[in-house]
Specification:
965 residues; alpha/beta; Immunoglobulin-like; six-stranded parallel sheet; five-stranded mixed sheet; 30% helix
Length: 965
């Protein structure tokens, strides 16, 4: 869409430029404080969740559907209604699009509108509604906002002149201090007003220190038409971030003996103006409209890439389409209703070896349904194709970030916007613009269905119990003649025990778990066990699996020095790029005559020692769904096969997009489910069913201490190389010389832009960039870009950080927590992003989003070797008990920078506490206090306020009664 509306109108609602060439028509949503440049975008905004939440909340006011002529209660029910078959049928009958914004009726039969809550209340409940807590809270908030707005107005002929928005101040100037002047004046003759008090709202009992100070020039406090008062507001802050306060001026009209207050908001952004100009939102956030879901009724197939036929499969994959009735269930109604129907109609009540396949097949279908639905977000409405020889090229925004992920062999549908049918490749040259839709690659889910349909379903693998514990206790010491491929394992008791438990295990035993916390060498242990299994028996065969190419490549590259190409085979998908293959692994692959990755003939496959099937090793098993893990296990195992799982259920699990599938257990990996069983207790089952590795070779003890105690019972031992883990001790980059963790308190602002729902925080970007510059410019402690890793939980923040660092340190890896699992860096910087101040109207637990996920937290804080640096807003992070405990740990050990914590960091953390409720309650108390203060001024309560008396006591004693007519 071409920008035609004035940017000033979009940003501020007005334009002062008389020569402006832009259009000044704008659509203003006063409820959301947003301005839109065109009617289409504005109408779409009216149907978004953010707007509807403000209209009526989750179960708020009634919304009217003009198509069906009925009222719908709240946003959740609205979304269920417009996605229903009945609504679609009514829209088709009337020849209208089913995607209509809800109307907000002023009158609803049988209801009364509560103007405070903006909700239609059934008449039978109206009498008791005003006494409900939500109504009272909302009423108090409206009183507070009204009181604030009233005090910000000039009154009684008096005006307070001055601009107290310091805007963006560079850190060097902010540290030195910036001063702005203000004037209190009146032009009304015979007016005589006295300034009783001039103060900051933050100084009234608050623990936090304000960067603002106010001083009155001169000793006089009387304002007349001939004499004004001047004052200065100074802002001084030594760290990047935002600050707000309220200047309160208390006056007495000497002639009338009345009292009143005028206030002015104070604000500043300490940071880089260049960063803000470069990274600020390009346009107001408007959720992107999903491309309309339309089934393909006629498709002209293109020519499949040769690589899709590179592997001669023996068994055909089952189609395994989502059953129509299940798809209808998944597409109709709120999530709670869908979940209830799934549990009632499809999911077996008890998970056993008999019901196993049915249970997980429905979870896979639920996840597939959601993934297919999510792909609609990436549809391109006006795409242009470029032609080169016999091929056509499509530019896909976000492809490098795998948003969407498109691989060789995936299907992309293209059609003319005016045509209901997909267009074949051969006809593309006839048209210039296309509607593009991406289709989910179903091969992975079809393989999971194939595995679940297999006959192998032994309880000793799926549901091991005490009856499956090995009869012979595995050896606890290695034979003297045993040759270790990695000598370091011989000196590590848990690693040694894990290897011995695997190689001396009876055939057909229950799965064995290598529980590997961060940096303890679980992959090294697994590789050693594979090599020892092969050394012990010439008939042993191994299938080594992993949920990602990078994890599989790591296994292959560590096995390669010990095995010949005739013994080890690394299987790749035919679509795998040859440029991504590690050099050490290349000779262990097979290509067909066309140069595509394939598999050798069966006679050669049977000669490999590391493929199948007396031992199945699954590395990083915690990151795979259970059906994914079963592709190797159920397809290959027999009565004599032993299964070894290596991973850490305390770190990130598989990524599941479907809320329904997640709630039904698809997010729980096989290794996590097994370790919840009593026989996998890491103490009682040691050596028999599980070995927990405890020697951490990665991190400094201070970095390891908190996650060790929270997630690993305090068992982990710091065994890292002192030259590495002590690298930043006694350096300029830490606050306390012996403590290599820094929390930099940064009060910023989380933003969104255009159609991206992801959050970013420019203030934190500036802080992170400054830190990277400081680290890279250090001539004493020299490091490279590759020594630094930056973790951000939101994709938008990742992109903003990369943009800001492009000219500073382009080689620094910036990514999500998921991208850093299994990795380490000498320095890890975490930008937590969220920084919300909506304490009263919003449940602040939601502002943390997945920042507060314990596993994501665990992975993020355990990647650093020598320096862990966190940038974030403590007032938001501390709402989560886990983060509060970690911030307490940092503050007590002297690693804090920036504004001080607003809570007692020595107080014990209540793991079940609703700290968000406490913050909201405190905010309400502050609002109530301010509102009562303003009310008290109307009856001459200034002295009581100054003396700190309770102005609520007998507040109505001297108030006159209204005359009743």
């Amino acid at each position: 869409m071409v920008q035609t509306t004035c940017p000033s109108v979009l940003a501020q609602g007005t334009c002062a430029d008389p020569l402006c060439q832009y259009e000044h028509n704008a659509y203003n949503c006063t409820l959301c404080s947003l301005v839109f440049g065109d009617q289409t975008t504005y109408k779409h905004h009216l149907s978004t969740k953010n707007h509807l939440n403000r209209v009526g909340g989750e179960t708020g006011s009634l919304l009217f559907c003009s198509i069906c002529g009925k009222y719908v209660s709240g946003i959740k029910n609205w979304h269920g209604h417009v996605s229903s078959a009945k609504h679609a049928s009514q829209a088709a009958i009337k020849g209208m699009s089913p995607d209509v914004p809800p109307e907000e009726p002023e009158q609803v039969p049988g209801h009364q509108l509560c103007v405070v809550c903006n909700r239609h209340i059934p008449s039978r409940f109206w009498a008791r509604h005003p006494s409900q807590p939500q109504h009272k809270e909302r009423e108090q908030f409206l009183k507070f906002t009204s009181a604030v707005e009233e005090t910000e107005k000039d009154k009684n002929g008096l005006s307070v002149v001055g601009d107290f928005d310091f805007k963006i101040v560079e850190p060097e100037k902010a540290a030195a201090g910036v001063v702005v002047g203000g004037t209190i004046q009146t032009q009304v003759p015979a007016t005589r007003i006295a300034l009783i008090d001039i103060r900051l709202a933050s100084l009234k009992g608050e623990k936090t220190l304000s960067p603002f100070t106010v001083t009155l020039n001169g000793s006089t406090r009387t304002i007349t038409s001939r004499s004004a008062l001047n004052f200065n507001v100074k802002m001084s802050q030594g760290h990047i971030g935002r600050a707000e306060d309220r200047l309160e001026l208390l006056f007495e009209d000497v002639r009338l003996q009345s009292h009143f207050m005028i206030t002015r908001p104070l604000s500043v952004i300490v940071g880089s103006k260049a960063d803000h100009d470069m990274l600020k939102p390009k346009a107001p956030y408007v959720p992107r409209k999903r491309t309309e879901r339309q089934p393909e009724t006629s498709i002209l197939e293109g020519e499949a890439p040769p690589s899709t036929k590179a592997i001669p499969y023996v068994d055909r994959l089952p189609p395994a389409p989502i059953p129509g009735h299940l798809a209808s269930t998944l597409s109709t109604g709120p999530v709670k209703e869908i979940l209830s129907r799934m549990q009632r109609m499809y999911i077996p009540q008890v998970l056993t070896s008999t019901t196993y396949a049915k249970h997980f097949k429905h979870l896979i279908w639920a996840e597939e349904f959601q993934m297919d639905h999510d792909l609609e977000y990436y549809g391109i409405n006006d795409a242009q194709l470029s032609r080169f020889n016999s091929y056509y090229y499509l530019k896909v925004p976000g492809l490098a970030e795998k948003r969407p992920s498109v691989l060789v062999g995936d299907r992309i549908l293209a059609r003319r916007p005016s045509s209901p049918k997909a267009t074949g490749v051969k006809e593309m040259f006839m048209f210039e613009r296309f509607f593009i839709r991406f289709k989910l690659n179903r091969y992975p889910v079809r393989r999971q269905h194939q595995a679940l349909d297999s006959a192998f379903s032994q309880d000793r693998v799926l549901f091991p119990s005490s009856s499956h514990i090995p009869r012979a206790i595995p050896r606890t010491t290695a034979p003297a003649a045993m040759r270790w491929y990695n000598p370091l394992i011989a000196g590590n008791a848990p690693q040694t025990q894990a290897v011995l438990s695997i190689i001396y295990r009876e055939r057909g035993s229950m799965p064995f778990v290598i529980f590997g916390p961060p940096g303890t060498g679980k992959t090294v242990t697994m590789v050693e066990a594979i090599l020892q299994v092969l050394a012990m028996s010439s008939t042993a065969r191994v299938l080594a699996c992993a949920p990602s190419n990078s994890a599989a490549d790591l296994i292959a590259s560590r096995l390669a020095p010990h095995l010949k190409p005739t013994e080890l085979f690394r299987a790749y998908a035919p679509s795998r790029s040859k440029d991504e293959i590690p050099t050490a692994v290349a000779s262990y692959t097979h290509k067909n005559g066309n140069g595509h990755f394939s598999v050798p003939p069966m006679i050669r496959m049977l000669r490999f020692r590391v493929i199948v099937t007396t031992h199945i090793f699954v590395d990083e098993a915690g990151q795979a769904t259970e059906p994914e893990a079963m592709i190797g296990i159920k397809s290959m195992a027999d009565n004599n096969t032993n299964v070894v799982l290596s991973g850490d259920p305390k770190q990130l699990g598989p990524i599941i997009r479907s809320t329904v599938a997640r709630a039904l257990g698809l997010e729980k990996s096989l290794i996590e489910r097994l370790m919840e069983r009593e026989i996998y207790d890491e103490v009682q089952g040691y050596g028999k069913s599980v070995v927990k590795l405890i020697k951490n070779f990665r991190s400094h003890s201070a970095i390891l201490k908190f996650p060790n105690e929270k997630f690993y019972r305090g068992d982990l031992q710091c065994c890292g190389d002192p030259k590495v883990i002590n690298f930043y001790l006694n350096s300029q980059h830490v606050v306390k010389k012996t403590f290599p963790i820094v929390f930099h308190s940064t009060c910023g602002k989380d933003d969104r832009e255009a159609s991206s729902p992801s959050f970013f925080n420019i203030d934190e970007v500036t802080q992170v960039k400054a830190l990277v510059q400081s680290l890279r410019s250090d001539r004493t402690l020299r490091i490279t870009d590759n020594d630094i890793g930056i973790i951000a939980p939101y994709h938008a923040q990742v992109l903003k950080l990369r943009t800001a660092l492009r000219a500073v340190a382009d080689g620094v890896k910036v990514g999500s927590v998921e991208e850093f699992q299994g990795q380490e860096r000498r320095v890890i910087i975490i930008s937590t992003v969220r920084s919300s101040k909506e304490f009263v109207e919003y449940d602040l637990r939601h502002t943390l989003g997945f920042v507060a996920n314990p596993r994501r937290f665990n992975v993020a804080v355990t990647r650093a070797q020598a320096l862990l640096y966190i940038v974030g807003d403590p007032s938001v992070l501390a709402l989560d008990p886990l983060w509060r405990g970690f911030l307490n740990y940092i503050h007590q050990n002297g690693g804090w920078k920036g504004s001080s914590p607003t809570w007692d960091t020595r107080a014990p953390v209540d793991e079940k506490s609703r700290y968000d409720a406490e913050v909201r309650g405190k905010a309400q108390l502050d609002m109530n206090e301010f509102t009562r203060m303003i009310e008290a001024l109307t009856i001459g309560g200034v002295q009581a306020l100054q003396d700190g008396e309770d102005e609520d006591v007998n507040v109505n004693l001297d108030r006159p009664w209204n005359e009743v007519e």
